[in-house]
Amino acid sequence: MIILAPSVLGADFKNLESELKAVSSAGAQYIHLDVMDGDFVPSISFGMPLISSIRSCTDKVFDVHMMVKEPYRYIKEIRQCGADLITVHAEACLHLDSTIKVIRKNGAKAGVAINPSTPISVIDLILPFVDMVLVMTVNPGFGGQERIPYTLDKVYRLRKRCQERGIPMDIQVDGGVTLDNVREFLDAGANVIVSGSAVFKGDAAGNTRKFLEIFKEYPQSV
Ligand code: DX5
Ligand code: ZN
């Protein structure tokens, strides 16, 4: 299934409820929530209080992207705030295997993210134990950046590797995805599309519908 995950970072924070309702009723399946600690990435975004207070605005999947060093410290709490899917960075976890286990033990789906310069070989051994791989297509930390072209080849090679191993993996891309370039990511094999500015700039519901219209051109299985 091809999934749109609008990133709240691109939304108007003083109108979060209406922004979330707009993308949800237009058909977005996930809500992408970027948690930044000012240490793993240069910026600080938001954390548990915001996630729990917006949980009741929508019944869509809360897809929490932890840009945080040693995220295992927060998994239980993030899950209690309403996260359905928790993604941690391979680069931020000294013990990635244990961290993935903690996510699953808390009843959430587990994702692993890799930065643009991290090779896919780093996560090869963990693939059978995660529900999703997030291939960062910008350096994490800020919305509104241009995608880094070489990351597309990583998506392509990761999809191929999962197919060779018979793993029906969700592959998420995040950063610089727009209505004009989203087909490049889908062609490479991504099926979970994060978009912040391209969804929330202007008409969020209309932009959501345009993304979903493009998704219909592609087979829905991974
Ligand atoms: C960047 C975040 C992204 C960001 C994407 O570090 O992980 O989720 O919100 O924003 P756009 O789509 O504007 O690049
Ligand atoms: Zn993100």
Give the SSE layout.
Elements: E1 3-6, H1 16-25, E2 30-36, H2 48-54, E3 61-67, H3 75-80, E4 85-89, H4 96-105, E5 109-114, E6 132-136, H5 151-164, E7 170-174, H6 182-188, E8 192-195, H7 197-200, H8 204-215
Parallel strand pairs: 1-8, 2-3, 3-4, 4-5, 5-6, 6-7, 7-8
Helix pairs in contact: 5-6
The chain binds D-xylitol-5-phosphate and zinc ion.
D-xylitol-5-phosphate binds next to strand 2, strand 8 and helix 7.
Ends distance: 7 Å
Order of strands, widest sheet:
1-8-7-6-5-4-3-2
Number of helices: 8
Instruction: Classify the beta-strand content into a percent band.
Output: 15-25%
Q: Low-confidence runs (pLDDT<50, min 5 residues)?
A: none
Hetero groups: D-xylitol-5-phosphate, zinc ion
The pLDDT mean sits at: 98
**Main β-sheet description:** 8 strands, parallel
Gyration radius (Cα, Å) is 16 Å
Kindly name the structural category: alpha/beta
- Principal-axis shape equals globular
Strand tally is: 8
Write the H/E string, N to C.
Answer: EHEHEHEHEEHEHEHH
Helix content range: 25-40%
Can you describe this structure?
The chain is an alpha/beta fold and 222 residues long. Helix 5 runs parallel beside helix 6. The N and C termini lie close together (7 Å). The site of zinc ion has 6 residues, from strand 2.
